[in-house]
Amino acid sequence: MTTLNAWLLDPNPKSRLQSRAGQTWLSWLRFRRNPLAMIGLGISVALILMSIFAPLLAPYDPIAQSLPDRLLPPLTPGHWMGTDDFGRDIYSRILYGSRITLDIVLLVILTAPVVGLIIGTVAGYFGGWVDAVLMRITDIFLAFPKLILALALVAVLGPGMVNAVLAIAVTSWPPYARVARAETLTVRNSDYIAATRLQGASSLRLIWGHVMPMCLPSVIIRVTLYMAGVILTAAGLGFLGLGVQPPLPEWGLMISAGRKFLFEQWWVATMPGLAIFVVSLGFNLLGDGLRDVLDPRSAGK
Amino acid sequence: MAPLSKTDTSDAAAQTSAALRFAKQSASTLFSLLITFVGLLAVTFFISRVIPIDPVTAILGERATGEQIAALTEKLGMNDPLWQQFGIYVWDVFHGDLGQSVRTRDPILSEIGRYFPATLELSTLGILIGVIVGIPAGVLGATKPGSWRDLLVRLVGLMGYSMPVFWLGLMGLLLFYGELGWVGGPGRLDSMYEMMLDMSVPPVTHMILIDTALAGEWDMFWNALSHIILPASLLGYLSMAYISRMTRSFMMNELGQEYITTARVKGMPERRVVWVHAMRNVAVPLITVVALSYAYLLEGAVLTETIFAWPGLGRYITDALLVADMPAVLGGTIVVGAVYIGINMLSDFLYRLADPRAR
Prior knowledge:
The structure holds two protein chains of two kinds. Chain A has one domain: MetI-like (MetI-like fold, Orthogonal Bundle), CATH 1.10.3720.10. Chain A is built from 13 helices and no strands. Chain A has helices at 2-9, 16-32, 35-52, 54-57, 90-126, 128-143, 146-157, 161-172, 174-188, 191-198, 203-239, 251-258, 267-294. The radius of gyration of chain A is 23 Å and the shape is flat. The model of chain A has no long low-confidence stretch (mean pLDDT 85). Helix content of chain B is 79%, strand content 0%. In chain B, helix 5 (108-143) packs across helix 10 (218-255), helix 7 packs across helix 10 (218-255) and helix 13 (313-322) runs antiparallel to helix 14 (326-354). Chain B has helices at 2-49, 55-60, 66-75, 82-94, 108-143, 148-162, 165-179, 191-200, 208-215, 218-255, 258-265, 270-307, 313-322, 326-354. Residues 1-7 of chain B have low confidence and may be disordered. Chain B has 14 helices and no strands.
């Protein structure tokens, strides 16, 4: 352990790998000192574990109905979060629901930031009219109220998870394009880019291999900070009946189902909302912590 | 004497050129507003043309004859080239024609005109609450960073970022209406007053608090207040999370400046240093923050209005969604988008007016 530590913290790294590993290790040490960020990390890891092991952890089937057990209050033996109007165990449904939530988040962060990254780097790298046109389009999308545009899109495409993901992605790429463009502008005129260009590298290779990697850290920070927003938007679409369809245990949909008997059986709407709250709080804390560690500009604050 | 008059004229020249630059910038802002708005229309136009629901069958129904379909397709201009259709679309929108609702057959703009005041009333009260609570909370955090009060403000703010607004609304109803009975339930008034409303209160502004106050119907006013206070506080909380966070960071930045140290060394009371000296400079970027959260509240209103049965624009859009009334949905989207752009531009303008450096 001590030798590993010494290797990681060696002030004169022998290889690129060692230097990178050392940097990562130092970042982790800084991250570890922030208790709120560690809580966020814990919640995020727990969410991932929950969704992987849902079949093992869930005591009941999330979809099969059992009408004799309908609307049991929390702390009933066997159903510690209670049951819903079809007699389904709420705890099991929340466990399986974490898979849907994670699916949506993953699909969105695999599309929107990538599109934003490409548009931003291309705009920043080429400048001129390419930049003007692309940034004008970005501004138009930024000017749109996101949720309303997503609503209109899903209304057109038809409800469902893939369409909800598409709608969220279409409305959320502009900030990434802005960030990527700003980063590109700072590196575009640096010597290493000029040197690579003199060696005959094409624009594509320059953007892909030398500009994009420089934009990645800021984009990643934005992604973590934005994950909570994705969860909330997806839940909102589900709540309005435009996202995942019943009987799937999507959290927003579960809240909307519990709304009918809110005043008599409060737990049906309350429990899934708590799940959404805890998970997005976790992502927010994680994002704040990562930003403090990875973004040197905010380190002092 | 001569040099003095020279500086005089150059000052005047500098002033006119500054005014000119300001006018020029405002004109270019206005131009980009126009471009953005047309871009927004391009998006809604595109959405409306890729709908799987065919507008012709939507109007005529499934059993129309081929002739009828051809006639209506021609009448709707759907045989024209796409760019021409878009031109007509933009022309119509600029002349206040957002089309007809499929559900009610009424012009969409006049329908929205009836729904919008309720949203405006709700979100304005919301932003007031957000500003009144959020700015002092942010200042409190900035003056004592790291204290338990600072942590509390940040934590409460972070919770606001992490809660689904529709769930928070349901929980608020459950607690303050269902359990405690402190506030009115969903809707703008109790049903008893709702019936009296049309008879005894002339709809001057269509905003219920103002209209009832103008008519001197104070019973009804208090009842309306008890209904609006929960959804407005909810929206206020959402904007407060953002406002307090930004106030804190602006104020911390400002308190590190040298002129603040000078003011403190002079022996100026801390309260005056913070609220008069620093606040003057913090207020400028805060304009943008408040404007942004106001625009954002219009969006938050969509889900909030659904929960609280609030007859506003958000509810109009979601109700139209449920019956697949696409022209109404897109019309609502255009209006919200236009207000959104307008508020952004206004904040840009105010910002440059307030900060001489930005001119």
